[in-house]
Amino acid sequence: MASGDFCSPGEGVEILQQAQIISNAFPPCALTEEDLIQNPYFSQLLLSLSQHLDESGLSLTLAKEQAQAWDEVRLHKTAWLRYEILQRVIQELLVDYYVKAQDTSLTPEDRKFHETLEQRLLVTELTQLSGPGQETEMPPLLGLEKADLLELMPPSQDFVWMRSRLQLEVEEQLKRKCFTLLCYHDPSSDSDGGTLKAAKVWKLPEVLVGEKQQCLEAKGQHKEQLVLLEKKRATYSQVLLRCLTLLQRLLQEHRLKTQSEIDRINAQYLEIKCNAMILKIRMEELKILSETYSAEKVGVHHLIRDRLEGAIRQQEQDMEKCRLALKTYESLGEDFETLVKEYTQLTLAIENRRWALQEFSKA
User: Fold this and answer.
1) 92, 102, 133, 136 - which has most CB atoms within 10 Å?
2) Is 297 within the bounds of a domain?
3) For residue 64, which of 53, 49, 73 has the smallest C-alpha distance?
4) What is the pTM for the complete model shown?
5) Which residues of 236-257 are buried (b: 16+ CB within 10 A; e: fewer)?
6) Could you say which of 150, 185, 220 is where a domain stops?
């Protein structure tokens, strides 16, 4: 731990607690233990501010007012959504009436209901357009006053009858929409009965709120995992850099020694490999010799060798005798050489006469 180099264990635990409180109170800060150790007054300032600020950085009073304002906005939004839903449902009822009027013949009650509804809706919209707020800014629409528009209202008894039926129609239309939404959310409920579907629709908001909460929790966990992953990535990067630095130092310190050891091992390996190659060559040579010279051939070669050696010895003996004779002749001098020449001439003459005598005897 980094703080172990600068503080005691008790102070380290306190710093860890401060870091946890600050990270919970101010998520964007993302302070580390080293930051808190190097800036102790800044950590004290953040701790004091965390008692007066919320997670978003607003003061507690302003955050309370903001929450109240959001509650009012939600109330107005809910009211507007209710009005908008009813308006759209009524518009869909009128559209269905126009479609049915083209395909089938409507009953008098249906025709009266839709005409009364359409007339009341149109008059209400025109009355809103020509309201008191518009009279002071611009002239009335088409020169019609509000009183002129109110005269076009349907009779009160028709309006009361239409409103009572409209409530049932709106409820039925909303019921069909809720069932469609339920089947979209849970397709298995399409085969259920009406009572079971109504019960499921009644619980559908709670189910959707629970699923929304699960999605928000999953997003929060995902965000936490991303932050944790970023921290681990930074930590791992620092560890890898330290490892690379250590490896570089080890290489610089032990490279020569390691290289000499590697060279020695390589030399031993090459020497052993060379000896093995020489032995292999010798083995191949002996194999060839053993295949070339059989026992009979070797015996014959020994016999030939003995005879050649005997002939060599005989020739050496003859050569030695001739050498001794030459030395004896050389010791006799020039007179002996003359005698040798005369002896040679006489020998040749004898040979010639012997040959002539043989030829004469043949003739």
Assistant:
1) 92
2) no
3) 53
4) 0.40
5) eeeeeeeeeeeeeeeeeeeeee
6) 185
